[in-house]
Amino acid sequence: MGMPFDDKRAVGRSRSATLLKGGAAVGAAMLSVGALAANPAACATIADNTERLACYDESVGRPHQEAPPPAAPVPLAREPSALSKRWELDAEDKRGTFLITPYKPTYMLLGRWTNSAKRLPTSPNPANTPSDPIDVDPAEAKYQISFKTKLWEGLIGRHGDLWLGYTQQSNWQVYNKSFSSPFRETNYEPELMAVFRTNLDAGLGFKVKMLSVGLNHQSNGRGQPLSRSWNRLMLQAGIEKGDFALMLRSWKRFEETASKDDNPDISRYLGYGDIQATWRLDAHELSLNLRPGFSRRGSAQVDWTFPIHRNLKGYLQFFTGYGETLIDYNHRQSTFGLGVSLVDWL
Q: Which domain holds residue 51?
Protein backbone atom coordinates (compact mmCIF):
# COMPACT_ATOMS: atom_id res chain seq x y z
CA MET A 1 0.00 0.00 0.00
CA GLY A 2 1.23 3.50 -0.67
CA MET A 3 1.87 6.14 1.96
CA PRO A 4 -1.07 8.42 2.77
CA PHE A 5 -0.95 11.76 1.05
CA ASP A 6 -0.66 13.69 4.32
CA ASP A 7 2.32 11.59 5.40
CA LYS A 8 4.07 12.22 2.07
CA ARG A 9 3.64 15.93 2.49
CA ALA A 10 5.09 15.70 6.01
CA VAL A 11 8.17 13.82 4.77
CA GLY A 12 8.68 16.38 2.00
CA ARG A 13 8.47 19.24 4.46
CA SER A 14 11.04 17.47 6.69
CA ARG A 15 13.52 16.97 3.81
CA SER A 16 13.14 20.54 2.68
CA ALA A 17 13.81 21.73 6.19
CA THR A 18 16.98 19.62 6.35
CA LEU A 19 18.26 21.02 3.04
CA LEU A 20 17.52 24.54 4.13
CA LYS A 21 19.41 23.98 7.39
CA GLY A 22 22.45 22.54 5.47
CA GLY A 23 22.44 25.41 3.03
CA ALA A 24 22.17 27.85 5.87
CA ALA A 25 25.13 26.21 7.59
CA VAL A 26 27.28 26.40 4.43
CA GLY A 27 26.23 29.97 3.90
CA ALA A 28 27.05 30.78 7.49
CA ALA A 29 30.49 29.20 7.08
CA MET A 30 31.10 31.21 3.93
CA LEU A 31 29.94 34.36 5.62
CA SER A 32 32.16 33.49 8.57
CA VAL A 33 35.26 33.05 6.32
CA GLY A 34 34.37 36.23 4.48
CA ALA A 35 33.98 38.07 7.76
CA LEU A 36 37.30 36.73 9.03
CA ALA A 37 38.99 37.66 5.76
CA ALA A 38 38.15 41.29 6.47
CA ASN A 39 40.45 40.97 9.49
CA PRO A 40 43.57 38.95 8.52
CA ALA A 41 44.62 38.48 12.12
CA ALA A 42 41.38 36.61 12.76
CA CYS A 43 42.30 33.99 10.10
CA ALA A 44 44.60 32.40 12.66
CA THR A 45 41.56 31.02 14.47
CA ILE A 46 40.69 28.69 11.56
CA ALA A 47 41.87 25.15 12.34
CA ASP A 48 41.87 23.71 8.82
CA ASN A 49 45.12 24.47 6.98
CA THR A 50 43.55 24.89 3.55
CA GLU A 51 40.74 27.14 4.82
CA ARG A 52 43.20 29.21 6.86
CA LEU A 53 45.41 29.78 3.78
CA ALA A 54 42.32 30.67 1.71
CA CYS A 55 41.33 33.19 4.39
CA TYR A 56 44.74 34.88 4.24
CA ASP A 57 44.70 34.92 0.42
CA GLU A 58 41.23 36.52 0.41
CA SER A 59 42.26 39.12 2.97
CA VAL A 60 45.01 40.42 0.65
CA GLY A 61 43.03 39.97 -2.57
CA ARG A 62 45.18 37.14 -3.92
CA PRO A 63 43.57 34.26 -5.84
CA HIS A 64 43.83 31.13 -3.76
CA GLN A 65 45.85 28.18 -5.17
CA GLU A 66 46.36 24.76 -3.69
CA ALA A 67 49.87 24.13 -2.32
CA PRO A 68 52.06 22.16 -4.79
CA PRO A 69 52.96 18.59 -3.84
CA PRO A 70 56.29 18.20 -2.02
CA ALA A 71 59.30 17.88 -4.33
CA ALA A 72 61.07 14.54 -4.60
CA PRO A 73 64.17 14.34 -2.41
CA VAL A 74 67.39 15.25 -4.23
CA PRO A 75 69.90 12.38 -4.10
CA LEU A 76 73.05 13.12 -2.15
CA ALA A 77 76.13 13.88 -4.22
CA ARG A 78 78.74 11.11 -4.34
CA GLU A 79 81.74 11.84 -2.14
CA PRO A 80 84.72 12.30 -4.48
CA SER A 81 87.35 9.57 -4.30
CA ALA A 82 90.91 10.30 -5.45
CA LEU A 83 91.77 6.59 -5.59
CA SER A 84 88.68 5.81 -7.65
CA LYS A 85 89.48 8.61 -10.08
CA ARG A 86 93.09 7.41 -10.46
CA TRP A 87 92.19 3.69 -10.77
CA GLU A 88 88.62 3.94 -12.18
CA LEU A 89 87.16 1.92 -9.32
CA ASP A 90 83.57 3.26 -9.23
CA ALA A 91 81.19 3.01 -12.17
CA GLU A 92 81.11 6.82 -12.51
CA ASP A 93 84.89 6.90 -13.10
CA LYS A 94 85.18 4.17 -15.75
CA ARG A 95 86.86 5.40 -18.94
CA GLY A 96 87.38 2.21 -20.91
CA THR A 97 90.51 0.45 -22.13
CA PHE A 98 93.74 1.49 -23.86
CA LEU A 99 93.81 5.09 -22.64
CA ILE A 100 97.06 6.50 -21.24
CA THR A 101 96.46 7.76 -17.69
CA PRO A 102 98.72 8.91 -14.82
CA TYR A 103 100.29 6.37 -12.48
CA LYS A 104 103.08 7.58 -10.18
CA PRO A 105 104.31 11.21 -10.13
CA THR A 106 105.90 12.72 -13.22
CA TYR A 107 108.48 15.37 -12.35
CA MET A 108 111.81 16.98 -13.24
CA LEU A 109 114.36 17.93 -10.58
CA LEU A 110 116.52 20.63 -12.13
CA GLY A 111 118.95 20.21 -9.27
CA ARG A 112 119.52 17.16 -7.06
CA TRP A 113 122.36 17.12 -4.53
CA THR A 114 123.75 14.20 -2.53
CA ASN A 115 125.96 14.12 0.54
CA SER A 116 127.64 10.89 -0.63
CA ALA A 117 128.23 10.30 -4.35
CA LYS A 118 129.21 6.67 -4.85
CA ARG A 119 131.90 6.28 -7.47
CA LEU A 120 132.45 2.52 -7.17
CA PRO A 121 129.21 0.46 -7.09
CA THR A 122 129.48 -2.93 -5.37
CA SER A 123 127.60 -6.23 -5.23
CA PRO A 124 128.17 -9.62 -3.51
CA ASN A 125 128.36 -11.07 -7.03
CA PRO A 126 131.97 -10.42 -8.22
CA ALA A 127 130.74 -10.16 -11.81
CA ASN A 128 128.73 -7.08 -10.82
CA THR A 129 131.51 -5.08 -9.16
CA PRO A 130 133.50 -2.75 -11.44
CA SER A 131 137.21 -2.39 -10.87
CA ASP A 132 137.54 1.28 -11.83
CA PRO A 133 135.74 4.15 -10.08
CA ILE A 134 133.27 6.29 -12.02
CA ASP A 135 133.44 10.08 -12.23
CA VAL A 136 130.31 11.19 -10.38
CA ASP A 137 129.36 14.79 -9.58
CA PRO A 138 127.32 15.30 -6.36
CA ALA A 139 125.00 17.66 -8.29
CA GLU A 140 122.86 16.33 -11.11
CA ALA A 141 119.35 16.44 -12.59
CA LYS A 142 116.73 13.77 -12.03
CA TYR A 143 113.40 13.09 -13.67
CA GLN A 144 110.62 10.51 -13.59
CA ILE A 145 107.83 9.66 -16.02
CA SER A 146 105.05 7.24 -15.11
CA PHE A 147 101.83 6.17 -16.80
CA LYS A 148 99.46 3.23 -17.09
CA THR A 149 96.74 1.86 -19.36
CA LYS A 150 93.84 -0.49 -18.76
CA LEU A 151 94.10 -3.66 -20.81
CA TRP A 152 90.94 -5.48 -19.69
CA GLU A 153 87.86 -4.25 -17.88
CA GLY A 154 85.92 -6.85 -15.88
CA LEU A 155 88.36 -9.65 -15.12
CA ILE A 156 85.94 -11.71 -13.00
CA GLY A 157 82.36 -11.04 -13.98
CA ARG A 158 82.10 -7.28 -13.77
CA HIS A 159 84.77 -6.98 -11.11
CA GLY A 160 88.43 -6.10 -11.44
CA ASP A 161 90.54 -4.50 -14.15
CA LEU A 162 93.89 -5.49 -15.65
CA TRP A 163 96.41 -2.63 -15.87
CA LEU A 164 99.82 -2.24 -17.49
CA GLY A 165 102.02 0.35 -15.78
CA TYR A 166 105.39 1.82 -16.65
CA THR A 167 107.73 4.04 -14.62
CA GLN A 168 111.13 5.35 -15.67
CA GLN A 169 113.49 7.26 -13.40
CA SER A 170 116.74 8.79 -14.71
CA ASN A 171 119.69 10.49 -13.00
CA TRP A 172 121.49 12.83 -15.40
CA GLN A 173 124.98 14.22 -14.75
CA VAL A 174 124.07 17.30 -16.75
CA TYR A 175 126.47 19.55 -14.81
CA ASN A 176 129.42 17.15 -15.14
CA LYS A 177 130.88 18.73 -18.28
CA SER A 178 134.32 17.17 -17.78
CA PHE A 179 132.77 13.69 -18.16
CA SER A 180 130.51 14.62 -21.12
CA SER A 181 127.33 14.94 -18.98
CA PRO A 182 126.23 11.27 -19.12
CA PHE A 183 123.10 9.64 -17.75
CA ARG A 184 124.49 8.05 -14.60
CA GLU A 185 121.56 5.70 -13.98
CA THR A 186 118.15 4.93 -15.48
CA ASN A 187 115.71 2.51 -13.85
CA TYR A 188 112.96 0.90 -15.94
CA GLU A 189 109.92 -0.52 -14.14
CA PRO A 190 107.09 -2.19 -16.11
CA GLU A 191 104.21 -3.73 -14.11
CA LEU A 192 101.15 -5.88 -14.76
CA MET A 193 98.42 -5.39 -12.13
CA ALA A 194 94.96 -6.81 -11.43
CA VAL A 195 93.06 -4.14 -9.48
CA PHE A 196 89.81 -4.78 -7.58
CA ARG A 197 87.39 -2.32 -6.00
CA THR A 198 86.60 -3.23 -2.39
CA ASN A 199 85.14 -0.13 -0.64
CA LEU A 200 85.36 -1.84 2.77
CA ASP A 201 84.73 0.16 5.94
CA ALA A 202 87.91 0.25 8.05
CA GLY A 203 86.47 2.39 10.87
CA LEU A 204 87.03 6.04 11.87
CA GLY A 205 85.85 7.12 8.42
CA PHE A 206 88.58 5.19 6.55
CA LYS A 207 87.72 2.91 3.62
CA VAL A 208 89.80 0.15 2.07
CA LYS A 209 89.06 1.32 -1.45
CA MET A 210 91.08 -1.18 -3.52
CA LEU A 211 93.23 -4.28 -3.53
CA SER A 212 95.65 -5.36 -6.25
CA VAL A 213 98.05 -8.13 -7.14
CA GLY A 214 100.68 -7.92 -9.85
CA LEU A 215 104.06 -8.71 -11.36
CA ASN A 216 106.85 -6.13 -11.25
CA HIS A 217 110.18 -6.02 -13.09
CA GLN A 218 112.80 -3.37 -12.31
CA SER A 219 116.21 -3.04 -13.91
CA ASN A 220 118.74 -0.46 -15.05
CA GLY A 221 119.18 -2.01 -18.49
CA ARG A 222 122.97 -2.09 -18.30
CA GLY A 223 125.54 -4.77 -19.02
CA GLN A 224 128.05 -6.23 -16.61
CA PRO A 225 129.44 -5.18 -14.22
CA LEU A 226 126.86 -2.38 -13.67
CA SER A 227 123.74 -4.46 -14.30
CA ARG A 228 121.12 -4.42 -11.52
CA SER A 229 117.63 -6.02 -11.64
CA TRP A 230 114.98 -7.98 -9.77
CA ASN A 231 111.48 -9.41 -10.29
CA ARG A 232 108.70 -9.34 -7.69
CA LEU A 233 105.16 -10.46 -6.93
CA MET A 234 103.37 -7.36 -5.62
CA LEU A 235 100.35 -7.02 -3.32
CA GLN A 236 98.79 -3.61 -2.67
CA ALA A 237 95.94 -2.11 -0.63
CA GLY A 238 94.62 1.43 -1.03
CA ILE A 239 93.00 3.16 1.95
CA GLU A 240 91.54 6.66 1.96
CA LYS A 241 89.62 9.20 4.01
CA GLY A 242 88.77 12.54 2.46
CA ASP A 243 91.98 14.14 1.20
CA PHE A 244 94.24 11.49 2.73
CA ALA A 245 95.31 8.27 0.98
CA LEU A 246 97.47 5.41 2.20
CA MET A 247 98.98 2.79 -0.11
CA LEU A 248 100.36 -0.35 1.53
CA ARG A 249 102.59 -2.54 -0.65
CA SER A 250 104.17 -5.89 0.05
CA TRP A 251 106.37 -7.90 -2.31
CA LYS A 252 108.08 -11.26 -2.67
CA ARG A 253 111.18 -11.42 -4.83
CA PHE A 254 111.54 -14.22 -7.37
CA GLU A 255 114.90 -15.79 -6.58
CA GLU A 256 117.57 -16.21 -9.28
CA THR A 257 120.51 -18.55 -9.64
CA ALA A 258 123.61 -17.25 -7.87
CA SER A 259 125.64 -16.81 -11.05
CA LYS A 260 122.91 -14.71 -12.71
CA ASP A 261 121.85 -12.67 -9.68
CA ASP A 262 123.07 -9.07 -10.10
CA ASN A 263 122.23 -8.15 -6.52
CA PRO A 264 121.65 -11.21 -4.29
CA ASP A 265 121.29 -9.16 -1.08
CA ILE A 266 118.92 -6.49 -2.41
CA SER A 267 116.06 -7.51 -0.09
CA ARG A 268 118.22 -6.74 2.95
CA TYR A 269 118.32 -3.09 1.85
CA LEU A 270 115.03 -2.56 0.02
CA GLY A 271 113.01 -4.83 2.31
CA TYR A 272 109.71 -6.54 1.57
CA GLY A 273 107.30 -3.63 1.24
CA ASP A 274 106.67 0.08 1.68
CA ILE A 275 104.09 2.60 2.86
CA GLN A 276 103.03 5.59 0.77
CA ALA A 277 101.00 8.26 2.60
CA THR A 278 99.65 11.28 0.70
CA TRP A 279 97.80 14.39 1.87
CA ARG A 280 96.10 16.85 -0.47
CA LEU A 281 96.00 20.35 1.05
CA ASP A 282 94.09 22.60 -1.38
CA ALA A 283 96.54 23.05 -4.28
CA HIS A 284 99.41 21.48 -2.32
CA GLU A 285 100.29 17.81 -1.94
CA LEU A 286 102.54 16.28 0.70
CA SER A 287 103.63 12.64 0.54
CA LEU A 288 105.79 10.35 2.65
CA ASN A 289 107.26 7.02 1.60
CA LEU A 290 108.70 4.65 4.22
CA ARG A 291 110.54 1.49 3.20
CA PRO A 292 111.78 -0.59 6.15
CA GLY A 293 114.86 -2.78 5.77
CA PHE A 294 116.99 -4.97 8.00
CA SER A 295 119.46 -3.75 10.66
CA ARG A 296 118.46 -0.08 10.37
CA ARG A 297 118.48 -0.22 6.61
CA GLY A 298 115.62 1.07 4.50
CA SER A 299 114.68 4.58 3.43
CA ALA A 300 112.38 7.57 3.86
CA GLN A 301 111.33 10.05 1.18
CA VAL A 302 109.29 13.25 1.52
CA ASP A 303 107.78 15.02 -1.50
CA TRP A 304 106.00 18.37 -1.55
CA THR A 305 104.32 19.94 -4.59
CA PHE A 306 103.00 23.50 -4.60
CA PRO A 307 101.33 25.70 -7.23
CA ILE A 308 103.41 27.90 -9.54
CA HIS A 309 101.34 28.63 -12.66
CA ARG A 310 98.15 26.88 -13.75
CA ASN A 311 98.93 23.16 -14.07
CA LEU A 312 102.66 23.60 -13.37
CA LYS A 313 103.74 22.92 -9.80
CA GLY A 314 106.95 23.37 -7.90
CA TYR A 315 108.48 20.20 -6.47
CA LEU A 316 110.72 19.53 -3.49
CA GLN A 317 112.09 16.06 -2.71
CA PHE A 318 114.13 14.81 0.23
CA PHE A 319 115.47 11.26 0.44
CA THR A 320 117.55 9.49 3.05
CA GLY A 321 118.58 5.85 3.30
CA TYR A 322 119.37 3.04 0.87
CA GLY A 323 118.21 2.38 -2.67
CA GLU A 324 117.36 5.73 -4.21
CA THR A 325 118.40 4.02 -7.46
CA LEU A 326 119.17 0.38 -8.26
CA ILE A 327 122.89 1.02 -8.72
CA ASP A 328 122.86 2.52 -5.19
CA TYR A 329 120.68 -0.17 -3.62
CA ASN A 330 123.33 -0.92 -0.94
CA HIS A 331 124.63 2.64 -0.56
CA ARG A 332 123.39 5.02 2.11
CA GLN A 333 122.98 8.70 1.25
CA SER A 334 120.79 11.75 1.76
CA THR A 335 119.65 13.80 -1.22
CA PHE A 336 117.71 17.00 -1.78
CA GLY A 337 116.10 18.04 -5.07
CA LEU A 338 114.19 21.04 -6.42
CA GLY A 339 112.24 21.20 -9.67
CA VAL A 340 108.78 21.07 -11.21
CA SER A 341 105.95 18.52 -11.22
CA LEU A 342 103.34 17.73 -13.88
CA VAL A 343 101.54 14.80 -12.18
CA ASP A 344 101.11 14.17 -8.43
CA TRP A 345 100.27 10.98 -6.56
CA LEU A 346 96.54 11.86 -6.42
A: 5-59
